[in-house]
Amino acid sequence: MKLSVFGTGYVGLVTGTCFAEMGNDVLCVDIDAAKIESLRRGEVPIFEPGLEEMVQDNAQRGQLQFTTDIELGVTFGDVIFIAVGTPAGEDGSADLQYVLSVARSIGTYMETDKIIVDKSTVPVGTADRVQETITAALSDRDAQISFHVVSNPEFLKEGAAIADFMKPDRIVVGSDSEYAADVLEQLYAPFNRNHDKVVHMDRRSAELTKYAANVMLAARISLMNELANLADRLGADIEAVRRGVGMDPRIGYHFIYAGAGYGGSCFPKDVQALIRTAEAVGYQPHIMAGVEAVNRLQKRVLFDKLFQHFDERIEGRTFALWGLAFKPNTDDMREAPSCTLIDLLTSHGAQVRAYDPQAGAHAHRLYSDNSRLTVCDQRADTLENAHGLVVVTEWNEFRSPDFNLIKGALAEPVVFDGRNLYDPDYLKRLGFKYYAIGRGS
Ligand SMILES: NC(=O)c1ccc[n+]([C@@H]2O[C@H](COP(=O)([O-])OP(=O)(O)OC[C@H]3O[C@@H](n4cnc5c(N)ncnc54)[C@H](O)[C@@H]3O)[C@@H](O)[C@H]2O)c1
């Protein structure tokens, strides 16, 4: 099939590339000219394992092309994916300006029948708005061309995006047109061979399914973090509790790690957006509001432990920080707990020397005006004479460091572990003061 994909971020680029990999002709469209230029050179501007090689292969085979030409983008594909950003607006609701701008362009330039697929995470009712927007643009130019709008939310995880797209758990297709649903089913057939993963439903339910999934996952994290904070106060160990509850097959082990709070480009904004959606229809969502409130506090927990340890005197001290990305295997720092920590430490007069295997360049750009943050190229460079080590992201390379080397380098042997990576007894035996999340300190 001939496909156009609007938006070449984490979702659009992975979607376009994976469809090209299966033999479709794909044109990826973005308004960011620098991004398109670098993609044309075969350089992927984000870190996502395996993506760059796949982009280069498909571009070389002529299966995958890139453009900033919106009109060409609209006319090229029989199926047009909308995969642009839906950031939080000022009141926390999803900002639909990018989605609706693509819809207007589609209505302005389309000459033949199209299937339009909403892949961005969008509030319930957005497919209707996309349909209205296209209809209005068509009627402005007295054009009568038929089109269908389908909701097909994306569930990929950054850091494992290609694997998730190639082997999805489910493919949600929300459509009120049997024809459009069939086309999508054909398009997804190569990803759906092992057993049928397509779930058909109406558009509104598909839109809500995406938010429901993210809110449920975020709720598990916040609940575990709340239990961890309780464990700290009760002298219990949340890691033992995690194993104990995870063994219950009704609960399971996924997403029950206590930590420094969730971040990223999805959970925080999606929980907020669903709260706003609920309020807009006169419903007060108590659990979702709690999920968000707990997470906001949780992002401070590492700082609070550190601040207390130093009797609230951290001005002039230097801290080593490991992990800037909001989770491992990505360079994405959107809403990352590391940002909350850096802001709190530096605004209290401390210096931070930070290291991340992938997000360093991003942090450089983000904090170019904060002279109290130094981004280091090597993790060892963060340690020399620092007054403590704070671990914020659970990258594999942080799991078994040389603690003797760390102890020798630090001015004070104290570790604040925001991901419960280390064995508290072992660190104590080595002479560290060790703080973790929900482990009694
Ligand atoms: N990142 C994830 O892990 C993930 C997972 C599932 C769903 N989603 C959802 O998918 C959507 C996209 O997320 P993302 O992380 O890929 O976003 P992103 O910010 O990485 O990329 C969005 C891209 O859209 C481009 N864009 C904006 N307006 C445009 C227009 N009019 N025409 C063409 N391009 C335009 C931007 O320049 C940018 O490159 C969001 O709704 C997000 O919630 C994200």
Walk me through the structure:
The model has no long low-confidence stretch (mean pLDDT 97). The protein has helices at 10-21, 33-40, 51-60, 70-76, 97-109, 126-140, 161-166, 178-188, 203-234, 238-246, 267-280, 286-309, 337-347, 360-366, 403-409, 424-429; strands spanning 2-6, 25-29, 64-67, 79-82, 114-118, 147-151, 171-174, 198-201, 318-322, 351-355, 373-375, 389-391, 414-417, 433-435. It is of the alpha/beta class. Strand 5, helix 6 and strand 6 form a beta-alpha-beta unit. Helix 4 (70-76) crosses helix 5. The protein has 16 helices and 14 strands. The strands form three sheets. Strands 3-2-1-4-5-6 form a six-stranded parallel beta sheet, sandwiched between helices. The protein is elongated, with a radius of gyration of 24 Å. Bound molecules: nicotinamide-adenine-dinucleotide. Residues 6-12, 29-32, 35, 83-86, 98, 101-102, 120-121, 154, 156, 158, 265-266 line the site of nicotinamide-adenine-dinucleotide. Nicotinamide-adenine-dinucleotide binds next to helix 1 and helix 5.
Key terms:
single chain; 441 residues; alpha/beta; six-stranded parallel beta sheet; 16 helices; elongated; binds nicotinamide-adenine-dinucleotide
